[in-house]
Amino acid sequence: MVYFIRTAGDEDVEKIRVLLAETFHQSYDPFYGADAVEKMVRNWHSPVAIRTRLIKKDGEFLVADDGSKIGGIAYAAVYPKMAKTVMLHQLYVAPACQNDGIGRDLFAEIETCFPDAEIMRVEVSLPNVRAASFYQRLGFAEVDRMEEWGAPNSGLPAIIMEKRLQSL
């Protein structure tokens, strides 16, 4: 199947929500349990939360679309705490589409969306070794660790990874 990378729109919100719920459960149930992950999904990936990201100034929300379904999403935004830095908040690929290059293609596109940025940053849940390995293959390196991944008081530790972006 061929997927095209495009900017997400309001018509994609429900498909994005379903994809995020599915991928979050697949990725995080083994570490945190289905009930805790379901709470994350409800809080972090509600239609309102997704719509807020779609219209965020200095943000970009992409989908990989084959014309009938969305195989993956990527969302990044300028990081206000650090000059010339972009935070990659989400990059998720539907379980049925993993290992087909969709994540790599989404990343290749999203890293070009911020021409003035010099660094891209991502937070990876500490137990999610598969994601950390994916980001390492894309050129990211661990620069720090944190105790509150995803939300304040989450109690979920994470690593912070960064990649230098190419100047255009």
Please characterize this protein's 3D structure.
This is N-acetylglutamate synthase-like GNAT family acetyltransferase. InterPro entries: Acyl_CoA_acyltransferase, Bact_Acetyltransf, GNAT_dom. GO terms for molecular function: acyltransferase activity, transferring groups other than amino-acyl groups. Keywords: Acyltransferase, Transferase. It comes from Rhizobium soli. The chain has 168 residues and is of the alpha+beta class. It has a single domain, classed as 3-Layer(aba) Sandwich (Aminopeptidase), CATH 3.40.630. It contains five helices and seven strands. A seven-stranded mixed sheet has the order 1-2-3-4-5-7-6, sandwiched between helices. β4, α4 and β5 form a beta-alpha-beta unit. It is globular, with a radius of gyration of 15 Å. The chain starts with a strand and ends with a strand. The mean pLDDT is 91.
